[in-house]
Amino acid sequence: MTIIEKIIAHHSRKERVSPGDIEDVEIDVRLARDFGGANVVKNMVEFGLSVDNRTRTFFTFDCNPTGSDQKYAANQQICRLFARENELRVFDIDAGIGTHLAIDKGLAVPGGTLVSTDSHANILGAIGCFGQGMGDQDIAASWAKGSVWFKVPETVKITLIGERSNDLSAKDIVLNLLQRFGSNQLLGYAIELYGKEVYKLSLDERITVSSMATEMGAIILFIPPNENIISYCRQHSENEFSPVFADNNARYAKEFVLDLSEFLPSVSLPGKPHNVVPLTQVKGTEIDSVFIGSCTNGRIEDLRVVADILNGRKITPGVVLKIVPATDEIWRQALDEGLIHIFKDSGALVSNAGCAGCASGQVGQNGPGETTLSTGNRNFPGKQGKGDVYLSSPAIAAASAIAGYITTADAIPDHPPIRSVVQMKGTYKKTEHDRLEQPPEILTGKVWLIPEDNIDTDMIFHNRHLAITDVSEMGKFTFGNMMGWENFADLAESGDIIITGRNFGAGSSRQQAVDCFKALGCQAILARSFGAIYERNAINSGFLVLVYEDIEFLGLRSRDEVKIDLINSLIVNNSNGRKMSLRPISNVQLQIYKAGGILGNLKG
Questions:
Q1: Is the distance from CB of 290 to CB of 372 less than 8 angstroms?
Q2: CA dist., res. 441 & res. 460, Å (int)
Q3: Is 245 exposed, middle or buried (0-12, 13-18, 19+ CB in 10 A)?
Q4: 3 state SS of 227
Q5: Residues 127 and 109: beta-carbon distance below 8 Å
Q6: CB-based contact 106:203 (threshold 8 Å)
Q7: What pLDDT digit, counting tens, does each position of 336-390 carry?
Q8: Phi/psi at 295 (5° precision)
Q9: What is the residue-averaged pLDDT of the chain?
Q10: Among 159, 220, 413, 530, which one is most buried in terms of CB atoms within 10 A?
Q11: What residues form DSSP beta bridges with 158?
Q12: How far apart are CA 118 and CA 101, in angstroms?
């Protein structure tokens, strides 16, 4: 049998299994991340399930280890509460990437099995352990039952012959494999990787290679453990284990022999990880940012390579370098070895351990028009932001951060080059703001009565939406964080007028809390008073904010129609004819309103 056949046979208590068999496989290690973890909890609770074995079940918070995203923070807390109730261990936001922790903490061992809500759980092939990424229902089932069904895959054997050149990194090796096999030639297969140079790969290098089995479409990429790997696992784990190796007469679906001496330092072009080209083809391409980290290249050996190149040098002006170790232990080791000092002296940003650029909740994302060189494993459009992402080894990434363009350490210029001036590639473009007609001095519209004081800008437009810059997209989030008014945007009509209490718009300076009403077509907000910054923002954007002394006389009900006379400072309830005075608006406010905003006044 092959490696995966032996592991599945052992964990399904069978003498033998064959490709195509579906077996109930016992799972030694069961992980749920902050991404997907809350859904695992939801499934467990909704179906009334209990945890099969607490000592084998863990949460790992690695997608958003900064806790900076409120949805992630909510999910993390859901997981923490479930963990307390069920006495489960949580590797919280200070720990690092779950699959790396499984190896370094000795949870997973050669010959074992692991599942996670991480699609790169097959990274465990680096130590000869079967790891698999699964959806939240699969994980919930494994937590409750201790096992899950699995179809035994066919296995492909790849042997690398020839010598490895000194400038060929582990990342280059797997990029060359990607270039050779693409994203679907090995789809659904398990891979076993052999060869003299493969045998000598360190743990960190094995992790790099195995981590990109997913991008090759493979179930897992096994690198049979050598003495060093076995020793490392025994030192870090209290669990007894027997490494699993393929039989000499194992049957493989396909076998390939590739010459490692023909492999070249390579880069993956934006959009598709398998669109790999030799480094020479893209050398000189200007970049805006560099990300070094991820489950593929966030180990201590990666950081040492980076530090060796950065030592005594500065990142070129105009380029941002972001470095994220894979685990907190690696972070501390980098600190003890002086690597963090080198990174900071070079001008790099160093974040706490985690997935970083591969997950939207941590450093590493890029913006429209930005070109990033990343050591991650994926560069699908939108995966690491809205810009272009090239994939490379840590050495190429570090050298390129200094040069300002894709290059190697031996070709870094003595002085930073003058960066070329390019047209802005972002989403903004010049538009005409000329009005076809002057805004009305007499307004007519239906009212919304919101008799509350101190409505703050987080209630009006929550900070989780602050990255939105297109005003037309803001309206749907209006009052989305205000209890009882969450569906306001669905009910509002163009021309509406809002009447509320004191200190409307308290809180932050966010312009979106004004623009969201404009996006909905609201004409004005009437209040007893406004937050100072909010009032300025509204006036300067040409949105009417009006102050009343006492609105009770009008006898208004929600959705009554009113008429507002700006020049005479009057409001009339059209349903009963009652009228009252408003505080007169200043000439400055009126002038800005007629110009469509303060910037309209400045237009030549």
A1: yes
A2: 26
A3: middle
A4: helix
A5: yes
A6: no
A7: 999 999 999 999 999 989 887 776 656 777 888 899 999 998 888 877 778 899 9
A8: -70, -15
A9: 92
A10: 220
A11: 193, 256
A12: 13
- Report the candidate in 575, 578, 508, 556 with the shortest Cα–Cα distance to residue 536: 508
The answer to whether the beta carbons of residues 193 and 223 sit under 8 Å apart is: yes
Residue 309 in this model has a pLDDT that exceeds 80: yes
Q: Look at the domain 266-411 and name its fold.
A: Aconitase; domain 3 (3.30.499)
Angle between helix axes 328-336 and 339-346 (nearest 10 degrees) is 80
Where do the CATH 3.30.499.10 domains begin and end in the chain? 3-262, 266-411
User: Is 270:282 a contact under the CB 8 Å cutoff?
Assistant: no
Taking each helix axis from N to C end, the angle separating 227-236 and 203-211, rounded to the nearest 10 degrees, works out to 100
Q: What is the pLDDT of residues 403-428, one digit of tens each?
A: 999 999 999 998 877 777 665 555 55
Nearest partner of 118 among 186, 41, 61, judged by Cα: 61
Give the pair of three-digit tokens for residue 480.
Answer: 């989305």
Using an 8 Å Cβ cutoff, are 546 and 520 in contact? Answer: no
What pairing do the DSSP bridges indicate for beta strands 147-151 and 130-133?
unpaired
Block residue for tokens 């899950």 = 148
Fold that domain 3-262 belongs to in CATH:
Aconitase; domain 3 (3.30.499)
Q: What whole-number distance in Å separates Cα of residue 521 and Cα of residue 493?
A: 7
Q: Is 580 helix (H, G, I), strand (E, B) or coil?
A: strand
Which CATH number does 442-602 carry? 3.20.19.10
- Say which DSSP state 506 is in: B
Residue 436 pLDDT exceeds 50: no
3-state secondary structure of 533: helix
Percent of the chain with pLDDT over 70: 96
For tokens 């170790």, what's the residue?
Answer: 325
Phi, psi of 584 (to 5 degrees): -60, 140
**Residue in 112, 115, 107 with CA at minimum distance from that of residue 140:** 115
pTM, two decimals, is 0.82
589: its two tokens: 């406010």
Query: Do the beta carbons of residue 327 and residue 91 sit within 8 Å?
Result: no
Task: Note whether 110 and 244 are within 8 A (CB).
Answer: yes
Half-sphere exposure of residue 354, counting CA atoms within 13 Å on the CB side? Answer: 29
Are 275 and 187 within 8 A, CB to CB?
Answer: no
Which residues face 579 on adjacent strands? 572
Report residue 125 CA to chain centroid gap. 24
Taking the C-alpha atoms of residue 140 and residue 131, their distance in angstroms, rounded to an integer, is 16
Mapping DSSP onto H, E and C, the string for 322-376 reads: EECCCEHHHHHHHHHCCHHHHHHHHCCEECCCCCHHHCCCCCCCECCCCEEEECC
